[in-house]
Specification:
Elements: E1 12-20, H1 35-47, E2 52-58, H2 62-74, E3 81-89, E4 102-107, H3 111-114, H4 116-125, E5 127-130, E6 137-139, H5 146-151, E7 152-153, H6 156-167, E8 173-178, H7 192-204, E9 207-209, H8 215-218, E10 234-235, E11 259-262, H9 267-275, E12 281-283, H10 288-295, E13 303-306, E14 323-326, H11 342-352
Parallel strand pairs: 1-2, 2-3, 8-9, 9-10
Antiparallel strand pairs: 1-11, 3-4, 4-8, 5-6, 5-7, 11-12, 13-14
Helix pairs in contact: 4-6
Length: 376
């Protein structure tokens, strides 16, 4: 079943939105980004239980586009999905030690919206400044060697402005920020200015990288020094920089629990976690519903199949011919227009389940007042 357009609706799937590929601009420990290294990297991702990846690089989208190109070439029918995650070191500091936190921008993977040319234009629009010399301005696309990337920072306002200048009001991107020691948790509580900046970063972000321990805090509506806050989702990620780090994709490495997201593996699906942060994300071994399915599998309906009896000539109508309806394990309601088949589904499931409430059926009924079936 295609995870991108599943007719069954939103399902729990494994996501990892922060991992680096061979050739990442900083801290590349994969080795030389040659064909053998890339093949090993791609094979590891294909064999992992993760279905959607955020390929990350610093101030650049090069390794994302190279990953997609090589992946399509090697696994043209793969169900894996990829999103560009560009990691920026902010010029502003919120911590006591003056460290520079990192902001992530995750882009829509639709090439018509965020293709190579559009991303290049965005990175050309965005100027960096050096940690050592704030007056030294360099466009992201002009950063060349390791020392350039190590020294580069971007101002929060400049980042937001470049996004708007490039993409307008369409906003085919989400902003993410770390929740832990190098992020929100590092905020200098003794500095009103840094608290205010941290609150502003929180406000512009769509979700946070962290762990299950950050969840309750970021779902609160009183996080800010002034005014109410909006609940935000938290996701865990591997932050892989080498092949040993990719073992974290298995979900059983201490400190790197898997992230499950209940959504289609599309950018629109990912955006759903921002609207329902409490119910769309689970950090841990398995969401509760999947555990219940494994323990009590016979209590879940997988699908409903209905067909005409053999020999029926359709003289009384073409009812239920080769119907195959997959059912979501978390199905709680059936909605639809009048006459669309809601009562039919419920009655058929009741009939097949040997319900003792046939007298209450509203579709499968011989009542003379029923207009659904006509008696001769």
């Amino acid at each position: 079943m295609d995870s991108e357009s599943s007719p069954i609706g939103s399902m729990w799937r494994r996501w990892d939105l922060h991992l680096h590929a061979p050739g990442t601009k900083l801290s590349n420990a994969y080795g030389a980004p040659d064909d053998d290294t890339w093949d090993r990297f791609i094979d590891t991702l294909e064999e992992s239980p993760v279905i959607a990846f955020g390929i990350t690089d610093y101030f650049s989208g090069d390794t994302y586009f190279e990953t997609v190109r090589r992946y399509v070439e090697k696994y043209p029918n793969s169900q894996k999905k990829f999103f560009l995650n560009i990691e920026f070191r902010l010029s502003e500091s919120i911590s006591k030690d003056g460290g520079h936190p990192h902001m992530h921008v995750i882009f829509d993977n639709d090439p018509d919206l965020c293709g190579y040319e559009k991303i290049t234009r965005f990175l050309t629009n965005l100027e960096t400044q050096s940690i050592d010399d704030a007056s030294a301005k360099t466009r992201c696309t002009d950063l060349k060697d390791t020392s350039d990337f190590e020294a580069a920072t971007v101002g929060l306002d400049n980042l937001l402005r470049a996004l708007v200048d490039t993409f307008g009001d369409s906003e085919p991107y989400l902003l993410a920020f770390p929740a832990n020691n190098d992020g929100l948790r590092s905020t200098d509580s003794g500095s009103p200015r840094k608290i205010q900046l941290a609150d502003r970063i929180d406000k512009v972000c769509d979700f946070f990288f962290g762990n299950a321990g950050n969840r309750d805090f970021l779902l609160r509506t009183d996080r800010y020094a002034q005014g109410p806050s909006v609940p935000k989702p938290v996701v865990s990620a591997s932050d892989a920089h080498c092949f040993d780090d990719l073992e974290r994709l298995g979900g059983d490495v201490a400190g790197f629990p898997p992230t499950w997201i209940k959504a289609d593996t599309t950018f629109i699906g990912l955006k759903q976690i921002c609207h329902e942060p409490a119910s769309r994300v689970f950090i841990g071994t398995q969401p509760d519903v999947m555990v219940r399915q494994e323990q009590d599998g016979t209590k879940f309906l997988d699908r409903l199949q209905v067909n005409q009896i053999e020999g029926y000539d359709e003289s009384n109508g073409r009812w239920f011919k080769a119907v195959d309806l997959p059912l979501n394990p978390e199905l709680t309601a059936i909605i639809g227009n009048k006459g669309s088949g809601k009562s039919a589904i419920v009655d058929i499931i009741g009939l097949l389940g040997n319900s003792r409430q046939e007298s209450y059926f509203s579709f499968l009924t011989n009542d003379s007042k029923s207009k659904k079936f006509r008696q001769k």
